[in-house]
Design brief:
The chain contains seven helices and six strands; from the N terminus they run αααααβββαβββα. The protein has 286 residues and is α+β, with helices and mostly antiparallel strands.
């Protein structure tokens, strides 16, 4: 009798096949699984990291510098001088991020490190003057973990900034967004569920004169706390993700998971493969 995906939907966690390498799931790993199981296999079963792109690295520079300020603001209630935070960005945050990403030569640069430093400093200063003074965190880089029935491992996440009535997540990019992107929705809903607070996104462009959009500029930058019916749908999505992992692991083991990215549905305006670092060894690209 052949194995069906549905066989694993309601299988107790202790009775299902599960790769021991996968200790937890997150919105990013679930998103990758749904985009392309082969990507998930390479990243989470073989622990292969893609070479990070420049945009991701600049965002990490920015977040490290913000956390340097917010971590002390939790108790002090005041911001560090901007020059001190910029100095930290250049002297501490940049080397720390580069080391964590495998060094400068491992980055897929669109420009170069000097330009990336400049971009990060420019958007940091703009955001620091216009938004940071009105933020009073009660926690930063806070981890949460949620257990779900029939999901063998917890769903975890890290919230950038907690405030009394909301959580904040900043997104940097070449262009600003005035509403929550579809790719942010799973993260926003999961974080809102875990914290009981709406998730507010801040979008910062890397233009010469950075543009910043928060909920003050656009009400569409907020993901509300899910309703009970929305929580049920989310839980079903997590159960489906777990069933897919069990099914593919039972069927293919550690190698040869199927590829989805090269044949997306018509609603996508880009291929997930365009952002995949494993195309060279992928059968979909031979």
């Amino acid at each position: 009798m052949s194995i069906q995906l549905s066989d694993f939907l309601d299988t107790p966690a202790a009775e299902r096949p599960w790769p021991e390498q996968v200790k937890h799931l997150s919105q990013s790993s679930i998103g990758m699984l749904f985009r392309c199981p082969r990507q998930f296999e390479r990243r989470y079963l073989h622990h292969e990291k893609e070479r990070p792109g420049e945009s991701l690295v600049i965002g990490s520079f920015f977040h490290e510098a913000l956390d340097f300020n917010y971590a002390q603001k939790v108790s002090s209630g005041t911001d560090r001088p901007v020059r001190e935070v910029v100095q930290y960005l250049q002297d501490e945050a940049v080397p720390k991020v580069l080391e964590g990403e495998g060094g400068e030569d491992n980055i897929r640069w669109d420009t170069d490190l000097s330009a990336a430093r400049s971009d990060a400093e420019r958007i940091l200063a703009a955001y620091y003057f216009s938004v940071v003074p009105r933020i009073q965190p009660i926690g930063t880089e806070s981890k949460f973990s949620i257990d779900f029935e029939h999901v063998p491992v917890p769903i975890i996440g890290f919230v950038d900034v907690w405030e009394q009535g909301r959580t904040l997540d900043t997104k940097t990019g070449k262009q600003v967004s005035t509403k929550v992107k579809p790719s942010w929705q799973l993260q926003g809903k999961l974080y809102a569920w875990a914290t009981g607070r709406p998730t507010e996104y801040h979008s910062i462009s890397r233009a010469k004169t950075p543009r910043i959009v928060t909920a003050l500029e656009s009400e569409q930058m907020v993901v509300p706390v899910p309703t009970d019916s929305q929580k049920a749908e989310l839980e079903h999505a997590f159960k489906t993700a777990a069933a897919m992992i069990s099914f593919f692991y039972e069927r293919f083991g550690d190698e040869g998971w199927p590829t989805f990215g090269a044949i997306p549905d018509f609603t996508r305006n880009m291929l997930p493969c365009d952002f995949c670092g494993w195309r060279a060894g992928c059968p979909a690209w031979k």
